[in-house]
Amino acid sequence: MAEVGQRLVLAFDFGTRRIGVAVGNEMLVSARQLEPLAARDGIPDWRQVTRLVEEWRPDLFVVGLPLELDGAELAMCTRARKFAKRLFGRFGIHCEMVDERGTTREAKAIARESGEWRDSRKSYRDDGVDGLAAVLILEGFFAGEAKKP
Questions:
Q1: pLDDT given at position 126
Q2: How many Å separate Cα 84 from the centre of its chain?
């Protein structure tokens, strides 16, 4: 495994219908979205996840923890943690949970500002911003790592 500051990281924005994915490099402090994973009740096609892991060979996984604004944990937090444990169990790669409060709202605002969501008939439910939310989760992780001594 690469040392801290030089790791390749796969980040996930957990959802029950779709799981956003981003890949990033700690050294470059850069992240980009990948194609989201379809999910059935929060369970992805693990063959797709395996393909991602084989293609990118990450040193670390990051999964967004969907806390309430007041920091309370609800059922989705339990499900996101379970997804993270399954990632570790299947691939043996350490997984960190990252507070994702506000990332979906921010991703929607970015999509609107970029012109991607000017058509009012588009639905976030059908055409989500999960990949962009995963990028924001990963950027938040990088910012937190940069603050560590």
A1: 46
A2: 11
CA-nearest of 52, 63, 64 to 88 is 63
- Whether 65 contacts 77, CB under 8 Å: yes
Q: What is the pTM of this model?
A: 0.85
Residue 22 CA from chain centroid, whole number: 6
Residues 113-130, buried b or exposed e (16+ Cβ, 10 A)?
A: eeeebeeeeeeeeeebbb
Alpha helix locations (H) across 59-102? 75-91
Decide if 2 contacts 27 (C-beta within 8 A): no
pLDDT exceeds 70 at position 25: yes
Residues 6+ apart with CB under 8 A from 126: none
pLDDT of residue 121: 47
- Measured over the CA atoms of residue 22, residue 79, residue 54 and residue 29, the dihedral's sign is positive
Largest Cα–Cα distance of the chain, in whole Å?
Answer: 47
pLDDT tens readout for residues 56-100: 999 999 999 988 888 888 889 999 999 999 999 999 999 999 988
Q: Which of 96, 90, 79, 85 is nearest to 52 (CA)?
A: 90
Does residue 145 sit in helix, strand or coil? helix
